[in-house]
Structures are given as structure tokens and as C-alpha cells.
Amino acid sequence: MASKATFEGAMTAIVTPFRNGAPDYAAFEKIIDEQIAAGIDGIVAVGTTGESATINVDEHLDVIKQCVKFVGGRVPVIAGAGGNSTQEAIELSRTSEKVGAEALLQVTPYYNKPTQEGLFRHFEAISKSSALPIILYNVPGRTSCDMQAETVARLAELPTIVAIKEASGDMRRASEILQLCGDKITLLSGDDFTTFPLLCLGGRGVISVVSNIMPEHMVKMCKAANAGDIATARKHHFAVQKLCALLFCESNPIPVKAAMALLGKLGPELRLPLTPASDATVAKLRAQLHEDGLL
User: Catalytic residue at 111?
Assistant: First the structure.
């Protein structure tokens, strides 16, 4: 098999700022510049944290296009291009490639609960439709669909499938993927809480929510762990844990947007059915940002 593209380190699942009901590209550009200045290794546009489920197709592709423009080639842009219809995912993938994305994030199809064979054929069809590298995304807590390690191993044989964002929170699953796939696929954490233990197992990075706010810690954690400096990685792991917990006390991206609004990086606007963070959550976030020296 020819060598595959490599995606590792700390990559941010970037928020999509809104103002008056539309994407706020002025805020988006500033957020991206700050991320790159902090040393982030990649930007994931229009994933779960980017509210892929609440924006329409035209907006989805425009956000990716603008992200590519603002990044300007400084780091890879990975486009959230998944869908619970294989044909929809194929169309999003092809168009994401046209607007300049360098890789695709493909979530397991939600709601319709495909079999493991259905999952394999879904991702196989997408891989044949675009030349871009694909990062698989397993997040059963959101999709009610759990991709088993054996299916990941089958998919790892396909030339464009290069990584998996594993967000089951199950270290046994992570171990099985590493054991079955070896270096045929890169294991990435899809859950900020489990990034450090996954790195210790042999994972190579994270697609992170907390890095919207504390990118430096996630960058340093990944670099240290990948260099074998577990003590330093552990230090950065503990530095983000309290904020990580708060960022998931309500449905993502409600808390992360509330925190970023407190920091003046964007307005707190979301789209229904997402609603603003409760007063209690905002108060807890404000206190934690003060404790972390950010506010």
C-alpha cells in the first residue's frame, strides 16, 4: 500500500459564529488566526461543534470555503462532510474538495442504524467518490451507531482512509483499533476527556472542542506525548480538565460558545433546536475562565 497522508497533533473542531442569523465571518477569521498563532495542527470546519446539523447546504459549503480562505494554507482544513445518506455525504465530499478542503471528516450515519456491513459500504463508496483523505468519525453517543474495530480494520485497507476520530470513550475499543490496524490508520481522540489516555495507548492526536479556548495546552499535550514525554503531557491534561467538564455540561456546542462569548470572541448566538446556555452554566464558565487566567 502506498503511504497515506498523515493527520496528527491537536486539531480544533472550530465553532461557527453567527450574527443576526447568518455566519459571522469577521469573527470566524479572527478565531482562525488565533488558533494558528497558538500552533494548532489543523482546523475542522462544520463538524458537530461547527453546528453542521443546524445549517443548510449552501451555508455548510460556504463556511468551508471561507475557512480555506482564512487559513490560507497555513494548516490543513478538514471538512465535515458526513451524512446519514451515502449520496448526500458523497455530494458534500465532492463539493468540499472543489472549495479547497484538504481532507474529509466522515461521521457514521446517524438515525438509520446501519449494520457493520452497511458502514463499510457507506465509507467505501465515499472513498471512491473523492481523492481527499478521509478521517472516520465514530461517536455513538450522538449517532446511535457504533463502528466496531473489525470494521475500522477493513476500512483501513482503503487507500484514502487515513485516520479515525474515536469518540466512544472506550479505551478497550481504542486498543482494539490499534492492535488490528497498526500503522494503517491514525487513531485520534474525539473526546477531550480521553485524549491523554488515548495518546498513552498510541493515539497520535485529537480533534478537540476545548482547543477553541485553550489551544496551547492541547498542542503541547499532543507534542509531548508523541515525543514520549508523558509527564509533560499529563500536566497539560490536568490543566484543561475542569474546563473540559464544563464544556459538556450542556449539549456541545452550547457551553463552548457561551465561554467564547464571555471572552469576547463571538456572540452567543446558536440556532434552534440549540438554545443559549443557562444562567447557571454561564456563571460556572465565568468562574472557571477566571480560575484558568483567561478572563
Answer: no
pTM above 0.85, yes or no: yes
Q: Are the C-beta atoms of residues 218 and 209 closer than 8 Å to each other?
A: no
Residue 253 CA to residue 13 CA, distance in Å, equals: 10
**Catalytic residue selected from 4, 65, 137, 257:** 137
pLDDT in tens, 34-67: 999 999 999 999 999 999 999 999 999 999 999 9
H helical segments located in 72-194 = 86-98, 116-129, 140-143, 149-156, 171-181
How far is 175 from 261, CA to CA, in rounded Å? 38
Q: Is 137 a catalytic residue?
A: yes
Domain ranges for the chain:
9-229
User: In Å, how far are 14, 37, 62, 68, 168 from 74, measured between CA atoms?
Assistant: 15, 10, 19, 10, 31
Strand partners, 207: 11
The CATH architecture to which 9-229 belongs is Alpha-Beta Barrel (3.20)
* Catalytic, out of 65, 165, 220, 257: 165
